[in-house]
Amino acid sequence: MNEKTRYTVIGAGHGGRAMAAHLALMGFPATLYNRTPGNVAVIKARGGIGLTSYEGGPHGFGQLALVTSDMGEALERAEVIMVVVPSTAHVCIARAAASYLRDGQIVMLNPGRTGGALEFVRVLREQECKADATVAEAGTLIYASRADGPAQARIFSIKYSVPIAALPATRTPQVLETLHTAYPEFIDGTSVLHTGLDNMGAIFHPALTLLNAGRIESMGGEFQFYVDGVTPSVARVLETLDRERVTIAAALGIRAQTAMEWLKMAYNATGENLYEAIHNQPGYYGIKAPRTLSHRYITEDVPMSLVPIAALGQAYGVAVQQIDSVIRLACTIHRTDYWRRGRTLDKLGIEQLSVDEVMRHVMEGAM
Fold it and tell me: I need a labelling partner for 253 at 20 to 30 A (CA). Which of 99, 197, 340, 350 fits?
């Protein structure tokens, strides 16, 4: 029997713990890295993570091969590096990993948000990384999960289908083949522009959080985010944002999934409209709202998702009034210039490229 693929999971938050425990339970040698030793001290002491799940889902104690805060040690034997951190940390991870990467390794951003792989590769080049490693990204995190304690994780659902893409796209088949045994749910996402523009978190998270701002602040998030928080009126705003995103993709020659199509693909959830489809997704039930507005649904999804989507629209002639209104509302609430902090096209290394040049870059690696 062939030796199983060696995984390193970078990040010990909700998703990182769920992924590391699940990989271990599937029998893969799994290493967990977190830059702050205190955050993984209990996991290291216990040697793994206790995982609970939905009925019929993965559960048990996932024994890890290694728990470390040393990047060199974490990457030394890894074949696949699953980066499961907020996308605001992608630059820091790229800088920290650049000198340790080896030829043939796969770095998968879970998820890339919008422009994640483009930014990661640009930073590796700036750091003069010589390794022929493949950087890829998932369109969304495969798990809906939460951390239940210092060494516990809970999976609410695992998506049926998650598009992924490598940069360049010619390497995607190799990534899919390597990850298939652990994650048969991964499918070809065409290119990192496709996965980035099919970023549903950009549509759902910021607007839903901001439109429930009063409720979040007064109730401390004690309500079901996707159930109580998505009223018919809120859903109509999400539909409008979604139409702008799809139009921006079309300007690049990309047929983006609508939010309704994505819910069908990822969760087999359907309905007459977006309101019904969201409420027909069982995995959303039980997920509480953020306790505060200082949450990654704004601090991450606005600069790392909405800003690059809007920047692409502005660069290639698409009106982005609705998306820009959400960005500006976030800027006002947090007294922060998310346009300046976000992934603008210069940070993705494509600010001087035409539509044709951008597509050649993501498909073939040509600049």
Answer: 340
Q: Match domain 198-358 to its CATH number in 3.40.1030.10, 1.10.1040.10, 3.40.630.30, 3.30.70.20.
A: 1.10.1040.10
Active site residue: 14, 22, 198, 301, which one?
301
Concerning whether 205 is annotated as a catalytic residue, the answer is yes
- The pLDDT value recorded for residue 367 is 61
66: β partners: 31
pLDDT in tens, 135-174: 999 999 999 899 999 999 999 999 999 999 999 999 999 9
| pLDDT confidence bin for 267, thresholds 50/70/90 | confident
Residue pair 85/71 in contact by the 8 Å Cβ criterion: no
Question: Which architecture, in CATH terms, is 7-195?
Answer: 3-Layer(aba) Sandwich (3.40)
Q: Is 301 a catalytic residue?
A: yes
Q: How far is CA 131 from CA 110, 181, 187, 253, 365, in A?
A: 21, 25, 26, 32, 16
Q: Which of 90, 205, 242, 361 is catalytic?
A: 205
Mean pLDDT of the chain: 96
Taking Cα atoms as reference points, which of 42, 154, 134, 156 lies closest to residue 83?
134
CA–CA distance, 253 with 345 (Å, rounded to integer): 18
Name the residue among 304, 272, 346 with its Cα closest to residue 199.
Answer: 304
> What's the token pair of residue 13?
């938050």
